[in-house]
C-alpha cells in the first residue's frame, strides 16, 4: 500500500508543478544511530527474553544430557629399534630409526585396540551385563553398585541386547518384563530362583547393596553380546601416540560412568602388561624348546664326531700332526747331526788306523798325540786314547834306542815286541770301534729313512685329522653356545618384565568432558545475545516509520513546531476535542506549546489562515486541527475550523454534529457562511463542516467564491483552521496550503513512513513552502521534548489507514502487550 501512496504522491507533485521526482539518494540522511538506539531500547525486553531463552535451553540441555567422563593413562614403550642396534648413525640412520620407532608404536597402538585385549578385558571385568536405575529424567548405570546380579545362559542369540525391566515386589520377590518375538513377556520370581524362559536360563542374585531404599526403585539390565561389547569398546577407546621421540602412548576411555571409565583404562593397562609378558614368555619358551631340541641333535652329532676323532687318534697314535711333523723334523736334524759325528769318528778312526800302520803317530818327537791327531778328543774313547799314547811312547822310546843300539840288540827286540803287541791291541780296538760306528751309522740311516717315510705320510693324516676336527669343533662350539643360550634364556624367563612403564595411571575423572557446563551456558548466552542483536538488526532494517522528533528533524527541512503525545485516557473511534476536558494533561500542554510557537511565527499578523494536512489518512490531522483550534480559542481568540476534506469529512464527527450543509453548499451558493457555522462547547470556537460530497472538490476550491468565503470569515474570526485532504492522495491540500499563512504538516509517530518525510522536502522545494511546519503526533511520552508528565495519555488508533474506505484496526491482547513492551 505504501508503494501506491508514494506513486500517487509523486504524481501529485508533478501535477503541482514540481517537475520530476528527485533521486531518492539526494535526501538520504545516512546511517541513523539514534533510530538504532531507539530500536535497541525498544527491543531490550526481547533481548532479555532471548538471553533467558538461551540460558534456559542450556539448562535443559544439561538437564537432559548425560555427562561424559574421560579417564586417561600414559605409557612409555621401551622399544629398541634395529637401526639403533646396528649402530647406524647420521641423518639416514636417524630417519630410519624414527620410522622404525613410529612403526613399532603404531603396532602397539593396534595391539591395544585389538580383539586380544578386548577378550582379556571382558574376562577381567564384568562388562557383559549393564545394570541401570531409572531416574527422574535420565537413567544411570549402576557399575559396581547394583543391588542385584544376573547369572545367565542364553540359547537364543536374539535375547542379547534386550532390555529386561525389573522391579522389586517384596524383600525377596522381583518382577521381570521384556520383549521377546515382538510380544511383551513378564513374570514374578524369587531372588536366587532359576528362571527358565524361552531361549534362556538365568538367576537374579542379591548383592550386599540390596536394602529397603534400593527396593523402591525401578531397574533394567541388558546382556551384551561380543559384537556389542567390541563396538562399545572400539567407539569409546582411543589410543594415541603422544610423543614418538619419547615413545609415549596415551590410552583414554570415555563413558557416562567415571568409575567404569577408570576401571577400564586401568584394566587395559593390566591386560596389556599381561599380554606383553605372555608374549615374551611364549617367545622365550619357544626359543628354549628350539634350543633344547637343537642341543639334543647337536649332542648326538658331537658324540659321532668324538668317536671318529678317537678312532683316528687310536689308529695313528697322534692328535696333532703338525706337532709330529715338527718332532720328526727335529729328530731328523738331531739324527743327521749324530750321524755326521759318527761319520767323523769313523774317518778319524781310519786316520788313526793309517797312522798306526805307518808306525808313526806323531810327526816329531816334540809334538804331542793330540797335536798330531786333532780330532782324537772327539772319539771320547779313553782306553783307545791311552793305548795310542802308550804306543806313541813305545815308538818314541824305540827311536831313541835305535840311535844307541842296533836292531839286533835285545833291548830293541823287546821294545819292538812290546810295540807289536800294543799295535795289535790298538788295531783290534780300532776295528771294533769302526764296526760299532758303522752299525750306528747304518741304524741311523734306517731311522732317517723311516722319518722321511713318516714325513711323506703326515700330510694325508693332517688332512684327515683336519676333516675330522672340523665337525668336532663345530659341534663342540655349537654345543657350548646352546648351553650358554639355554642358561641365558632361563635366567631371562625367570626375570621377564614388560618393556613399558605406566608413567601416569588412570584416575577417576572429577569433571565431565562433555557437556562442559560453563561452555554450554556461554553458548546459550551467546546465542541469546546474537539472536537479540539479529532481532535489533531486523527491526532496525524493517523500521520504516517515524518514531521520534529527532528522526523528523533529521530527515526534513521543515521546522518542527511541536510534539503531541499519545492519548490513552479513552478509546475514540473518531477524532474528538479533548483539550477542554483535560486542560492540565500532557497533550493539552503540548498543543499549548504549538500555539505559542505559532504566535512567534505569525506575531505580525492578527488574522491568520492555518492549513493542516498530512500525507495519508490516519495521521491525525483532524485531531490536531480540532484540538489546536480549541487551545487557540481558549486563549481568547475567535477560531473557526473549516473541513475541506470534502471526500471524507470528519470535523463534524469530532463535534458530534451533522454534515447536512457546509463548505460545499457555501461554494455552490446554496447556503451562506453564517448559515453553515456551527458552535461548540468552547464559546470562541466554531466550525463549518465539509457538507455533502461534491463531484468536483478541487474545482470548488479553485473557484473565486472560496476566496470570498475566507474574506467573510476574516471579518468574524481571528484564526481560520483548515482541515485539508491528505496531500499524498489528492491535490486539494496543496491548493489550500498555497493560500495559508502557516501550512502545518502532521506526521504520526510509529505510523507515518520515513519516505513521507522525503516527500515533505520535495513538496517544499516544488511549491516554495518556506514556512511549512511539521508536527509529530501520537509520540510516546519518552520521545516528547519537555513533556512526559507520566499521565500516559493518547488518543488511540481511531483514524484508519485508508482514505476512501475506513478500516478499524483490531486491538488483540498480544498487540496490547507488545505496545506495553515498546
UniProtKB/TrEMBL annotation:
<dbReference type="GO" id="GO:0004715">
    <property type="term" value="F:non-membrane spanning protein tyrosine kinase activity"/>
</dbReference>
<dbReference type="Pfam" id="PF13807">
    <property type="entry name" value="GNVR"/>
</dbReference>
<feature type="coiled-coil region">
    <location>
        <begin position="384"/>
        <end position="450"/>
    </location>
</feature>
<dbReference type="GO" id="GO:0005524">
    <property type="term" value="F:ATP binding"/>
</dbReference>
<feature type="domain" description="Tyrosine-protein kinase G-rich">
    <location>
        <begin position="464"/>
        <end position="539"/>
    </location>
</feature>
<dbReference type="InterPro" id="IPR025669">
    <property type="entry name" value="AAA_dom"/>
</dbReference>
<keyword id="KW-1133">Transmembrane helix</keyword>
<dbReference type="InterPro" id="IPR050445">
    <property type="entry name" value="Bact_polysacc_biosynth/exp"/>
</dbReference>
<dbReference type="GO" id="GO:0005886">
    <property type="term" value="C:plasma membrane"/>
</dbReference>
<keyword id="KW-0472">Membrane</keyword>
<keyword id="KW-0175">Coiled coil</keyword>
<keyword id="KW-0067">ATP-binding</keyword>
<dbReference type="GO" id="GO:0042802">
    <property type="term" value="F:identical protein binding"/>
</dbReference>
<dbReference type="InterPro" id="IPR005702">
    <property type="entry name" value="Wzc-like_C"/>
</dbReference>
<dbReference type="Pfam" id="PF13614">
    <property type="entry name" value="AAA_31"/>
</dbReference>
<keyword id="KW-0812">Transmembrane</keyword>
<keyword id="KW-0547">Nucleotide-binding</keyword>
<comment type="similarity">
    <text>Belongs to the CpsD/CapB family.</text>
</comment>
<feature type="domain" description="AAA">
    <location>
        <begin position="608"/>
        <end position="763"/>
    </location>
</feature>
<protein>
    <recommendedName>
        <fullName>non-specific protein-tyrosine kinase</fullName>
        <ecNumber>2.7.10.2</ecNumber>
    </recommendedName>
</protein>
<dbReference type="InterPro" id="IPR027417">
    <property type="entry name" value="P-loop_NTPase"/>
</dbReference>
<keyword id="KW-0829">Tyrosine-protein kinase</keyword>
<dbReference type="InterPro" id="IPR032807">
    <property type="entry name" value="GNVR"/>
</dbReference>
<keyword id="KW-0418">Kinase</keyword>
<feature type="transmembrane region" description="Helical">
    <location>
        <begin position="518"/>
        <end position="542"/>
    </location>
</feature>
<feature type="coiled-coil region">
    <location>
        <begin position="288"/>
        <end position="346"/>
    </location>
</feature>
<feature type="transmembrane region" description="Helical">
    <location>
        <begin position="44"/>
        <end position="62"/>
    </location>
</feature>
<keyword id="KW-0808">Transferase</keyword>
<comment type="similarity">
    <text>Belongs to the etk/wzc family.</text>
</comment>
